[in-house]
Amino acid sequence: MTVPLTVHSLPPVSRVNRLWISLVALTLALGIASVAVGDSESRRGYGYTRSSLFFWFGILIIFVPIAVRLLMKDVDRRERLTLVVLLGASLYLVKYLGSPTAFTFSDEYIHLRNTQEILRTHHLFTSNPLLPTAAFYPGLAAITAGLVNLSGLSPFASGLIVIGIARLLFSACFFLIAERVTRSDRAAAGASLIYVANPMFLFWSAAFSYENLALPLAAFTIWWLGRTRRLKSEVPLVVAIVAIMAVTVTHHVVGFALSALLITWWLVERFSGRASHARRVIGLMALVSTTTTLVWFFFVARPASTYLFTENLLPALRQTISLALGHISPRHLYVSGGFLTPEWEVIAGFAAVGVLLLALPPGLYLAWRHRDSAPMVAAAGVAVLFPLSLVPRLAPAGVDLSGRSSEYVFAGLACVLGLLVIDNKWTRDRMHQHSTFGFGVIGWKKTALATLFVTLVFVGEITVGQSFYELLPEASHPHGYPWLVQPDAISASNWAREHLGINQRFASDDLDSFALATYGEQNTVAENKVWPIFFAKSLDWTVVRDIKSTRIHFLFVDRQMTKGVPPTPGFYFSPQEPGAGEYKNAFPPDSLKKFVTSPCIDEVYINYEVEIFDVSRIENGSCVPLMTYFQDRVAYQ
Amino acid sequence: MKRIHFVLLAVSCAVGVLAISTADIDMFPIARVTLGLLIVFIVPGFALVSAILPKRQFSPGEYVLSTLGASLALSATAAVALGAAPVGLSKLSISVALGCCTLLFSITAVVRARVHKAPRGTSEDTSN
After folding, report:
1. Architecture in CATH for domain A487-636
2. CA-to-CA distance for A393 and A391, rounded, in angstroms?
3. Of A78, A124, A375, which is closest to B80 when you measure between CB atoms?
4. Most B CBs within 10 Å: which of A121, A149, A182, A221, as the mutation test of the B interface?
5. Interface pTM, i.e. ipTM
């Protein structure tokens, strides 16, 4: 089968429709305002049911009008592109409205700490207590620190701008790449809508995190190569090489994904037998990307292999295999921290996954008809991984793997499913006796149907990607154990920076370590080493041993722990602590009393629920707790 | 290359020079923010893309996209390189690095545009 090489051009009559653009702009404004009201209600503590009405209404009127317009026939290509970029920007605003004054996601604190370290020392690779690997991928932190230096803006504002620009870049590049893969701007619009529906897109992909800069840069590299590789010059490769370098120093997984995609692209063209300058360009860039990624990963970012494989990938795969073999029971979906997810959200989540699974076979069939196109073959190869990527979600350690892989899997899936929204006509036999098969969605009624399905997928996948209570900001004074860093912890961290100095060794719970490491600029000790100190019933020799071995000088105690069970991911300090993920009762208050009663421990700070204890006398051995003294004597006798 | 393109390259050069010359000077916040955003997200990429593609091969939209992408990539790479080097990543070093890159690429773009002005028989197919 011969497939035309050019992108489908639109009829010359199609123009940007100002009425639609105005309507979409109006609904976007209303949608964003509605989300802002929902966020505000939630902060005031009005409860999820009431606040979420505003949130979901806003989300729907942002998404639906754009989806309708994007899926319509005879829409100008530039209008589709503009709408896709507008949708990306609007959904970025939704995330921003959830935390408009400071970073609040766990990964955001990690990269904020990286940025602060670069601003303070002017150099890279200083240790990051929150995630040591992140210090070795400093692309995001470095460009943010550069912008802080140049503009005088705060790290928060600079980070928002960097990720915002990256979001715009990604939205446009993804549309243009999908357009080249599917050879239709309408299919590309459908693909963009499906990609936007991936469970990570609304919140995770908008966070100040290194992956969210690297992925747009990788998309830009692919678009640039697709656009310039047939030029009779090697000079355009300079931009691709710079972009590959930027990806390499920004994020490990994106570096690997980009290399794998370029290699696949080259291999498909290699075995389709077309030798050309353009193919050699892809091969050369695949070589550059693979080499730089591997060299950086193994020789510069040395902790990365342990973090990626030993701590994340292997446990997730091991549990997934155990699950498949029936050795462990599957995780209860939509259950988190004792909260009960609204029933309609559970149904929407399953329906979204069901729609995608049902749409995949016809999409793959249409992709098979385009098998002469190397990018489409690569996209189909990625799309078939979608059902497999769902399996780890059922294993407790596989949730992150399943969720984060969706950002990559949906790229292929979206391109394949995008084919379903265009007219698909092909020649049935070689005698040119045409037969038309109606897999494509055409006409008004079918546009409405496609909008309905894509909206269902979008809403359902939001519920898959985020616990329902995390869709809206936390109340200002939460009753139980909070899931966001609280102002009390920030005040205490600021106090610690001003009065104790920076880079003191602190032990704290997982949530407050984010505030301590960023606002306080302290070195928090890994929580999986310190949880026994807090869990011990008394100040016995094991506590003293742990304080000495981890060289902790200060303890950060948040009594909010005693008010409720921890929500996702279900622990106070570490997944290794007793009861992690299965809490029914809050942290026992008695375990925290031991710090107040010991003469070897000095309380240096107290404000509401937060206390800071100085344990340096125990750490340096100048004071021995009484109980330990007797235990030692008993042991000696 | 159209006249507007030369004007934009001249503006890029001006922003590059301004970035270098004001690296050690306290400016009004709004001017500093504007200059900072331009030198990180716009001008280095625009100058680089113009130097690489001296003839008009992209649509205006594609120029905007490649300007953003190339600027982001170039700024991130430059910031990492400075941070890893003994000189360190500071206001002065990043201003000089991005400003010099912009100047260099802008001049290259103008020179290459002049060289390519004479018609040649090169055939180009940018389709996939």
Report:
1. 3-Layer(aba) Sandwich (3.40)
2. 5
3. A124
4. A149
5. 0.91
pLDDT reported for residue A12: 45
Q: What does chain A come to in residues? A: 637
Residues of A in contact with B41 (CB under 8 A): 165
Q: Tell me the residues of chain B between 60 and 119 that have a Cβ less than 8 Å away from chain A.
A: 61-62, 65-66, 68-70, 72-80, 82-84, 88-91, 94-95, 98
**Closest chain B C-alpha to A255 CA, distance in angstroms:** 14
For B55, nearest residue in chain A (alpha carbons): A231
What is residue A624's DSSP assignment?
-
Give the CA diameter of chain A.
99
- The reported pLDDT for the residue numbered A625 is 78
Q: How far apart are CA A345 and CA A341, in angstroms?
A: 7
Answer whether A159's CB lies under 8 Å from A115's CB. yes
Residues of B in contact with A149 (CB under 8 A): 89-91, 94-95
Cis peptide upstream of residue A387 (ω within 30 degrees of 0): no
Q: Per-residue pLDDT for B59 more than 80? A: yes
Which pLDDT score is estimated for A329?
83
The pLDDT tens digits of the residues spanning A205-235 come to 999 999 999 999 999 999 999 999 888 788 8
Tens digits of residue pLDDT in A348-378: 999 999 999 999 999 999 999 888 888 899 9
| CB nearest A147 (choices: B36, B70, B123) | B36
Alpha-carbon torsion (A468, A55, A347, A85), positive or negative: negative
- The residue among A143, A148, A158, A174 with the most chain B CBs within 10 A of its CB, best to mutate, is A143
Spans in chain A with pLDDT lower than 70: 1-16, 274-275, 336-338, 423-443, 626-637
Instruction: Give the pLDDT confidence of B1-48 residue by residue, as tens digits.
Output: 678 888 899 999 999 999 999 888 888 899 999 999 999 999 999 999
Domain ranges in chain B are 3-115
What tokens were used for A521?
């600029």
Query: How many Å apart are CA A565 and CA A481, to the nearest integer?
Result: 6
Q: Verify whether the Cβ–Cβ distance B57 to A81 is below 8 Å.
A: no
| A305 Cβ contact partners less than 8 Å away, ≥ 6 residues apart | A297, A298
CB neighbour burial string for A166-184, b if at least 16 within 10 angstroms, e if fewer: bbbbbbbbbbbbbbbbbbb
CB-CB contact of A508 with A555 (8 Å): yes
Chain A: closest CA distance from residue B118 (Å):
17
CA of A373 vs chain B CAs: smallest distance (Å): 9
Q: Quick one: closest CA in B to A221, which residue? A: B69
Q: How many CA atoms lie within 13 A of A472 on its CB side?
A: 29
- B73/A149 Cβ within 8 A: no
